[in-house]
Amino acid sequence: MTKTPEELFQEGLERYQAGASPSDLIPVFKEVCDRAPKNGNAWTSLAWLYLLDSKPAPALKAAKTAVKLNPHDPQSRINMVLAMLDLGEKGVRPHIEMAQQMLMASSEWLEEVKKNLEEGLSKKPDWKSLIRVKQWLLEA
């Protein structure tokens, strides 16, 4: 029996939390995005996995889709900024400012983003873009 996109997403999330590699999970989340193209959380997760796998170009594409679907999700914008920085693109400031505003408005989002930033650095300790974004968002 075929799993629903929601079941696939949950399964992928559990595998991620259990330590599965981003390269193993990308196909799972790509399938979720293909089957549920309006699922902003799936696009945000896919962008994050691409970033962890050092693939900023597809990460940027996924993050732009996530931001379009869910413009008020700070993690989507952060992923987009990370991809833009990794690619050397300009124009990150408005997205950082928007993310800062969202984090100031919600302590729940702030805690989630802090956790994600720490997790990213634990998986990629030398990730210069993530270090910069963390400084911008949390030490501003």
CATH architecture annotation? Alpha Horseshoe
Q: Using DSSP, what is the number of strands?
A: 0
Q: Can you count the helices? A: 8
Assigned CATH superfamily? Tetratricopeptide repeat domain
How confident is the prediction overall: mean pLDDT? 95
Largest sheet: none
The CATH class designation is Mainly Alpha
Note poorly predicted spans: none
- Alpha-carbon Rg, integer: 14 Å
N/C terminus separation: 50 Å
Give the CATH topology: Serine Threonine Protein Phosphatase 5, Tetratricopeptide repeat
Percent of residues in helical segments? over 70%
Number of domains: 1
Derived from helix and strand composition plus strand pairing, the structural class reads mainly alpha
Q: What is the helix/strand order? A: HHHHHHHH
What best-fitting shape do the alpha-carbon axes yield? Answer: globular
Strand content: under 5%
In words, what does this structure look like?
The chain is mostly helical. It has a single domain (5-138), classed as Tetratricopeptide repeat domain (Serine Threonine Protein Phosphatase 5, Tetratricopeptide repeat, Alpha Horseshoe), CATH 1.25.40. The protein has helices at 5-17, 22-35, 40-52, 56-69, 74-87, 93-105, 107-123, 128-138. Helix 1 runs antiparallel to helix 2 and helix 2 (22-35) packs antiparallel against helix 3. The chain is globular, with a radius of gyration of 14 Å. The N and C termini lie far apart (50 Å).
